[in-house]
Fold this protein.
Amino acid sequence: MISPPATYDAGEFAGATRGAAHSGRMLRWAIDRAWRAAAFGFLALIVLSLVLPQAVVILSALNTATIVSFPLSGVTLRWFVRAVANPDFAEAALHSAVVAGATALIAGSLGTLIAYAGERFAFRGRRLLEAGLSLPLLIPHFTLGLGLLITAFQLGVARTYGVIVAAHVLLVLPFVMRSVYVSLANLDETLPLAAATLGARPLTIVLRIELPLLAPGILCGLLLAAILSFTEFSASLFLVGRHTQTLPVAMYNYIQDFSEPTIAAVAAMMIVAVAAVLACATRLIGLKRVLA
Amino acid sequence: MNGPAAIQLDGLCKSYGGAHWAVAPTTLSIMSGEFITLLGPSGCGKTTTLGLIAGFVPPSGGDVYVHGEKITQLPTFLRDVGVVFQNYALFPHMSVFENVAFGLRIRRVPGAESRRRVEEALAMVRLADFGRRRPAQLSGGQQQRVALARALVIRPKILLLDEPLSALDKNLRAELQLEIRQIQRTLGITTILVTHDQNEALSMSDRIAVMRDGSVQQIDTPDDLYNRPANPFVASFVGEVNRIPVTVGERTGDGAQITLPGGARRTVPTPKIHGLNGGLAATLFVRPQGLKAVDAAVAELSATVGPVVFQGTHCEVHLMSEHCGPLQLRVEPALGPSFEPGQECHLAIAEDAISLLSSPSDDTVPQ
């Protein structure tokens, strides 16, 4: 039993008033506790609903049963072995990695450039450009995929890596730009002035002062771009060909034909890979922040 | 010392469009080795003036000369000006040593010489052992000393200080004022300080330019500025001052008769009269130490004693006068207790204590 904190105790009150005041305070204290408990429970529920599906996927990948099911009837690693041995998945994973890498590099540099230019030079149409580049946040990915598919056919480049990367770049650009904007907003604007008084030319200021200080934000944007690209499905579905299949699309195709836990094993490996990359990044960027 | 001034502003001005000047056309000569302060309330154009000299802000007109060379069109990185900023502006991703060495590396000063000069500069600001620290690991005062070392190590032609001490607490500020002044004297570097703090301006400067609404009101030594202010704004902005409404009477040989609110008369010497004519209402400006408590027989003014504030070196006696409004008197600390709140007090203006006599048509006075 938790007793009410001392501040609620009305020790100075005497007689009948004391009893009434005291019970009133008790009630308020109890309501306060109940609210806190409810808020905490709600938060826990949200976190749980985020974590639970992933835990279930990982656990069912370890299940001995031949269909994706829960709870476990026994533990085995054979679905992982099958997943790794499957050449379709291996190839798709490689494609995804290449696409994610290319997307991160292109979207990272493009996003940094646009965000920097937008912040430093108030050029005409800057707001319009930013609004346009934020559109992928609002429109369904498959709309973009479909649109690009039609365009790519017209241009005769359908089913190529280039189109997939282009789609992913468009989709992740707003995230990269936001990440860089945050870093830019935190960049003290007197630093470039100070560097100039010490004789640094504009390019030197960018390379020696601004880029190093923006690095955490840019790196963060790059990682976000890579992860979003690696897990992107609905736009990619329209754009990949048999020889440019990305991992999420390959998983989707597999699940159409088979229902055994190999797919859960692939998903589990994907979850772990993304989590590992994120953990490394947090450590790296976190350390940078401390040093700066 | 003749020859060109170290810094010459020639009609330098800045306008952001619209009716008023950010900096009205300003002409100003600063001698080599001089320490000049631009003093004024926020928004008076002092920081913009500094930005024009450093090249941060393109001027709307006029020119800047440094040692006779016109630098108006030069970009900042070619101007050879050392600048210390209010927020220190140290590069957070570099060590203290790297911060100070930055300007030397840009200038491709060879390693050994660069190292020696950085160490000298850090020793000059008493931070010889702090080279390996990050700026974030230093106190505000230490960071500002690093910024000073960084600005001076490149041996700039001029040094610009933009409110360098306003982020620091009072004791540290006083200490750094002395330190900066000493370093400036030793190096003999021409320096412009921007501040809104009148005490800082009075204690550090060879000359002070008081600015208001983009234009210089008066440029003079601290002593002249305090004792012979050019207008009501300067009189009120630099130091405490009592304002006493008077009537100007007839001109005599060496001045003019004025009538104080209680009916007392006195003569004000000619230099203070300016163009004031007889019969006109005017305001007399007197410093707190220029008022004296006297016997009723020789009193010129009377007022009721209010709060008495002990300030260590002196006591401030606040009074309320029926005719003049609030007045302030400065007395020796030992005399403080002899003023009892509520008591009637008789006052006289000391000889030579009149700072300024101004007509109401002069600039309005900020409160």
